[in-house]
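User: Batch of two.

Assistant: Item 1 of 2:
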Amino acid sequence: MSFNRVIEDIRGFIQHQPDHRVRKQAKGSYQAFVNISGKKEIVLTRDVGRELGHPQNTSLAFLAWTDQPVYTNQITLIGPDLSEHQDTHMAFGKALLLSVKEFDPDNTYERYQELDLLRFKLNICGYMMRAASQQMREWSRISQKALGQGFSLFDLASAWIDLYSQLPYVTGVEVIVLTDENAIQQLDPIAQNVFQYVRAMMKMHEETNLDCSTCEYQEVCSDVQSLSAMRKRIIENRDS
């Protein structure tokens, strides 16, 4: 399975955004913010400069993979950067587009799990992942100190690119960051296609009952060939 259609829809979504709201940059250096101590950063409430995707704010975070090339090392920001926002709390959206190789029904679930958990391994000074749910939401904090030192969303996205590029089956990483609430809401229907696939895949692997007639993801599984192949392989492995 690759999310080629989803990525095409994302490209169209970006093209329809007002030009003054969209900025694109290549991955840059963020070495000044690399945490060399190895100890994860903790950003306390009193030290928060910006809070991204707080439960009271709009939040959307997902990744989509494809066997086709993406715009490797490109970062697209839709909305204000950290220093351009007046409030501490900011709406937050993140879409990671990954070019991958050798995904099949046997390894897609395990690889997705690895990709999904990788975000918790990012170790940047002044950045802390507060929470991430299975509902495609992500909540994180940026410290006042990092903000004062010029830390930007382009720095954060550059770190994500390097983090995911370390995986042997990832051949390219593109990042789209959104802080414009309206844009995040516009992207949400596209992201729901990814969410439905991921939830169907997780249900197959985590539940013992594979009776399609009682499954709420029956429609998406019928439409996506890779999910049908995955279900067949799971049944074969359980019967063997």
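Item 2 of 2:
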Amino acid sequence: MYRLRLADPADLPAIVDIYNSTVASRMVTADTEPVPLESRFMWFKTHQRLNRPLWVAEPFSHSSDGVNVEVPESRSVLGWMSFSDFYGRPAYRHTAELSIYCHGSIRRKGLGSFFMHAALAAAPGLDIKNLVAYIFGHNEPSLRLFEKFGFERWAKMPGVAELDQIERDLVILGKRVS
């Protein structure tokens, strides 16, 4: 159903659009306003390293004989996943933050699980021993996804974010992957 590939600069507008589509929900990001495309250029550049990739998912189809065939809109970005440095100090080099964002039209249709399978399979080859995720305590769909794949609640930071005058908890999930 989906094909995973490394993101290229032409994907950045779609990546930012998907990210910005989550801002209004107050469920996914601590940004309170959409971010401008230009503000993500350096972020994108940091994900051009082999051990901290940014991947996008595109639609993929299977022919009747089971062979994978790209659908015409194969450059249509349905979602993205990134591995980011954790805390930026050398001693943490084997730990990465995992972020997953899906286009609104494709949420709850298996793309998050597709990304999660790919992330867990790729992590050891990226020299990652631990994956962490920062998820708002009220974002039950994301918490369920990560917990379904064996992530545990490593920490809870009560009331550290304020969105529309409502204090929100941040849950840190983690998983040892190698």
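The chain is about 20% helix and 35% strand.
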